[in-house]
Amino acid sequence: MNSNRKKIIFRWVKVSILLYAVIGISLFYLQDYFLFHPVVIERNIPYQFDVPFKEVDLPINETDTLNFVQFFPKDTVSRGVVLYFHGNKKNINHYSKFAAFFTKRGYEVWMEDYPGFGKSIGNRNEKILYQQAEQLYKLAATKFTKDSTSIYGKSLGTGIAAYLAAVKGCRQLILETPYYNIPALLNSYLPIYPGNRMAKYKFPVNEYLENLKMPIAIFHGTNDGVIPYKSAVRLKHFLKPTDRFVTINGGSHNDLTGFPLYQKVLDSLLQF
Questions:
Q1: Residue 271 to residue 263: CA distance in whole angstroms
Q2: 113 HSE (CA, 13 A, CB side)
Q3: Which residues pair with 65 in a beta bridge?
Q4: At what angle do helices 126-140 and 157-168 cross, to 10 degrees?
Q5: Torsion over CA: 121, 140, 102, 69 (sign)
Q6: What does the radius of gyration of the chain's CA atoms come to, in whole angstroms?
Q7: pLDDT confidence of 78, banded at 50, 70, 90?
Q8: 2-25 residue pLDDT tens
Q9: Which CATH number fits domain 37-269: 3.90.70.10, 2.20.70.100, 1.20.1600.10, 3.40.50.1820?
């Protein structure tokens, strides 16, 4: 091999290493921008929804305020409450359409916005997201018993929902398009990077499911292009024989609620 060829190869090796390092550093320091896509709502703008609701501000400390919406069934007597933890984009306005799946079955839905989403203000990290979920649960517990409380997580929210079920308990845990954990999800996109070391957020759904006693139901589509189906399949290892893993053939990340199978299983889950 002549010297010019060696120089060219060496130059490309240096460029590749530099590119690898730059991308890796960017992924590490910009994780919040990749993982969260919030849309802020001015606090003086009133919500408008097609179902009865009440907006609530829950002060967390001097600087942080958790904003959430209580969606009510049309009947005055509710069968229970669903604590709903949504995905990683926009705000309650975007996810409010899903509340009707529960309110029409007689349940209240309490849906929070994470810090920086909608009207919620304050800092955001994994610990804070857990703590605020616990505050929501604590408030719900003043009205509903554990046996009438269901916890529902969608996409990013499945990590928060699984944590809350593990530390507080509930009647049942329902997860829509969950991941195994964030480092594993990162590895599925960028296997050349050490996900366990790079991921600031862990959301270890797998660990939280391991010792849960309450019923668990998981919905996932085979054509999910955001959280691969195989990521959810790995969670089967932690399910009890009586738990349900519902595969929606042809379902993607945001359309599972439109499938008859989803509706049928949800009906069975919400019946006492």
A1: 13
A2: 30
A3: 59, 121
A4: 60
A5: negative
A6: 21
A7: confident
A8: 666 655 555 655 554 545 444 545
A9: 3.40.50.1820
Q: Which amino acid is present at 122?
A: G
Strand order across the 107-112 sheet: 53-59, 65-71, 107-112, 80-85, 149-154, 172-176, 216-221, 244-248
Separation CA 253–CA 245 (nearest Å) = 16
HSE on the CB side for 123, CA within 13 Å? 8
**Mean pLDDT to the nearest integer, 232-247:** 97
Cα distance between residue 15 and residue 79, in whole Å: 61
Tens of pLDDT, residue by residue over 26-38, are: 555 556 777 899 9
What average pLDDT does the segment 173-181 reach?
A: 97
Residue whose structure tokens are 């609620």: 257
Domain ranges of the chain: 1-35, 37-269
Q: Which residues of 195-225 are buried (b: 16+ CB within 10 A; e: fewer)?
A: beebbebebbbbebbeebebbbbbbbbeebe
Long-range contacts, 211-214 (Cβ 8 Å, 24+):
211/166, 212/165, 212/166, 212/173, 213/169, 214/165, 214/169, 214/170, 214/171, 214/172, 214/173
